[in-house]
C-alpha cells in the first residue's frame, strides 16, 4: 500500500518528524518533485555572503526610504505658498518627495523579496495533479509541515541580522503607507483667528465676519488671472471678485457669490490700478463654506414663494441667497433649473425647492439649504444683511431642520 492510501492516526502523525511530514505532504498532494537543488549546499560559500549583502541592501534601502517618507511627511514645510512667496520652491517639493520616497521604499522591498527568493529558496521544479473537494486532517497537518520545511530550507531562521533588516523595513514601509491618514485627524473645535474662511471651526465661514461688524458685498467671480506688466506676471490691479447690483442678473438666473469685505473691493468708482487684493479675494473663493447661490426668481414664481418662519426678511425682492454646500455630504449644489425652481446637487441627486426656503424635496439630503439674509446698500450693491443663522453643510445635530 502506498503512503497516499494509508489512513494515519493522530498518534502516528504526531510521532513523525517535520521532514517526514513534509515528504508525506508532497506525496499526498500528488506532487512530484522533478528537480531540487539547495542554493548553498556547502558551508562558508562566499556566494552566500554576497547574497546576504544583496538582499540586506534592498531591504535596508526600503526601510531607509520608508523612514525618509515618514520624516518628510511630518517635518517638511507643506503649507501652501503662492507664486512669488518665500519658500515656494521648498514647498513645491513636498508632494514629489513623499511620493518618491514611498515609491522607492515599496520598490526596494519588492526587489529585496525577489532577490531573497532567487538566492535563498531552493531551486525546485515540482508538478502537482489537481484534485477537488475539501482537505482532510492529514492534509492540513502536512501543509503546516511543508510550510515549516520551507522556513527551514530558506535558512532565514539562522540569519538573524537579515531577518532584523527585513522585518524592520517591512514595518517602516507599512507605517509610511498609513502615515498619510494622519492628515485626516483634525480637532473640529480648534479655533484660530476669524478670517475670510471662518475661524477654523465647521460652523463658521467668511460670512461670519458680518457678526463682527464687517460689511460684506456679494462678490461675483470674474475668473480674472494675473496679468503681464513689464515682462512680469502681476496681480496688481486685477480684480477677481466684483460687487453686484440687482440689475446685473436676469430673472430666472443664478450666480455663485462669495463674501467680499469692503477692504477687498477694487471695482467701480473705487477701482485703483495699483491696489493688489487678488490674494485676499482668492482666499474668499477658496473658503470651503463661503459659496452662496444668488437666485433671481421670475416674478410670477416669486409671488408663490413660501418663507420659512423667522426668515421672512432674508430675501431681497425676487433675490434669494442659499448656501451652495449640499446638506447631504457637502458637494456644491451647482444646478438651478428655472422652470421648476429646483436646485440640484449632482453628487447624489438631492433636489431643493428655491420657492420653499431651500427645502429638500428629493434625494438623500434631509435638511434645507441655509439661507443668507441679503439686501441692497445705499449705493445699490447687493450686500449680506446678516450671517447664516445655522451651520452650513451636512450633519449638524444642532440644526432646526
Ligand atoms: S452631496 Fe448633495 S446629494 Fe449627496
Automatic annotation (TrEMBL):
Family: Belongs to the Rieske iron-sulfur protein family.
Signal peptide: none
Source organism, top-level taxon: Bacteria
Record-annotated Rieske domain positions: 289-383
Role description: Iron-sulfur subunit of the cytochrome bc1 complex, an essential component of the respiratory electron transport chain required for ATP synthesis. The bc1 complex catalyzes the oxidation of menaquinol and the reduction of cytochrome c in the respiratory chain. The bc1 complex operates through a Q-cycle mechanism that couples electron transfer to generation of the proton gradient that drives ATP synthesis.
Gene3D superfamilies assigned: Rieske [2Fe-2S] iron-sulphur domain
Cell location: Cell membrane
GO molecular function: 2 iron, 2 sulfur cluster binding; metal ion binding; monooxygenase activity; oxidoreductase activity, acting on paired donors, with incorporation or reduction of molecular oxygen
Entry keyword Transmembrane helix: yes
SUPFAM superfamilies named among the record's database cross-references: ISP domain
InterPro entries, A to Z: QcrA_N (IPR045603), Rieske_2Fe-2S (IPR017941), Rieske_2Fe-2S_sf (IPR036922), Rieske_Fe-S_prot (IPR014349)
GO CC, alphabetical: plasma membrane
Transmembrane intervals: 55-76, 88-111, 161-181
Name of the featured protein: Cytochrome bc1 complex Rieske iron-sulfur subunit
Pfam families: QcrA_N, Rieske
Keywords for this protein: 2Fe-2S, Cell membrane, Disulfide bond, Electron transport, Iron, Iron-sulfur, Membrane, Metal-binding, Oxidoreductase, Respiratory chain, Transmembrane, Transmembrane helix, Transport
Topology relative to the membrane: Multi-pass membrane protein
Amino acid at each position: 500500500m502506498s503512503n497516499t492510501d494509508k489512513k494515519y492516526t493522530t498518534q502516528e502523525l504526531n510521532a513523525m518528524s517535520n521532514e517526514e511530514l513534509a515528504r508525506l505532504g508532497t506525496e499526498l498532494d500528488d506532487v512530484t518533485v522533478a528537480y531540487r537543488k539547495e542554493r548553498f549546499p556547502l558551508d562558508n560559500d562566499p556566494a552566500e555572503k554576497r547574497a546576504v549583502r544583496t538582499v540586506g541592501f534592498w531591504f535596508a534601502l526600503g526601510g531607509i526610504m520608508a523612514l525618509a517618507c515618514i520624516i518628510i511627511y511630518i517635518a517638511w514645510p507643506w503649507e501652501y505658498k503662492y507664486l512669488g512667496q518665500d519658500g515656494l520652491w521648498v514647498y513645491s517639493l513636498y508632494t514629489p518627495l513623499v511620493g518618491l520616497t514611498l515609491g522607492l521604499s515599496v520598490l526596494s522591498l519588492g526587489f529585496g523579496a525577489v532577490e531573497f527568493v532567487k538566492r535563498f529558496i531552493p531551486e525546485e521544479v515540482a508538478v502537482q495533479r489537481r484534485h477537488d473537494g475539501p482537505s482532510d486532517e492529514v492534509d492540513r497537518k502536512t501543509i503546516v509541515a511543508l510550510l515549516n520545511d520551507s522556513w527551514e530550507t530558506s535558512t532565514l531562521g539562522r540569519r538573524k541580522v537579515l531577518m532584523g533588516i527585513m522585518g524592520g523595513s517591512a514595518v517602516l514601509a507599512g507605517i509610511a503607507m498609513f502615515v498619510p491618514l494622519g492628515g485626516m485627524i483634525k480637532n473640529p473645535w480648534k479655533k484660530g483667528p476669524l478670517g475670510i474662511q471662518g475661524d477654523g471651526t465647521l460652523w463658521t465661514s467668511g460670512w461670519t465676519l458680518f457678526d463682527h461688524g464687517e460689511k460684506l458685498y456679494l462678490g461675483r467671480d470674474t475668473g480674472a488671472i494675473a496679468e503681464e506688466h513689464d515682462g512680469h506676471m502681476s496681480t496688481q490691479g486685477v480684480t477677481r471678485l466684483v460687487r453686484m447690483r440687482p440689475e446685473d442678473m436676469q430673472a430666472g438666473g443664478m450666480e455663485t457669490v462669495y463674501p467680499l469685505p469692503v477692504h477687498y473691493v477694487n471695482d467701480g468708482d473705487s477701482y485703483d490700478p495699483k491696489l493688489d487684493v487678488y490674494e485676499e479675494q482668492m482666499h474668499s473663493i477658496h473658503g470651503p463654506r463661503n459659496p452662496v447661490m444668488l437666485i433671481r426668481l421670475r416674478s410670477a414664481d416669486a409671488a408663490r414663494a413660501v418663507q420659512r418662519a423667522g426668515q421672512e426678511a432674508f430675501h431681497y425682492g425676487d433675490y434669494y441667497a442659499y448656501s451652495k454646500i449640499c446638506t447631504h455630504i457637502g458637494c456644491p449644489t451647482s444646478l438651478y433649473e428655472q422652470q421648476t425652481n429646483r436646485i440640484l446637487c449632482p453628487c447624489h441627486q438631492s433636489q431643493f425647492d428655491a420657492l420653499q426656503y431651500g427645502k429638500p424635496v428629493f434625494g438623500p439630503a434631509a435638511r434645507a439649504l441655509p439661507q443668507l439674509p441679503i439686501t441692497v446698500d445705499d449705493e445699490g450693491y447687493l450686500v449680506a444683511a446678516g450671517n447664516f443663522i445655522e451651520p452650513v453643510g451636512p450633519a449638524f445635530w444642532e440644526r432646526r431642520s
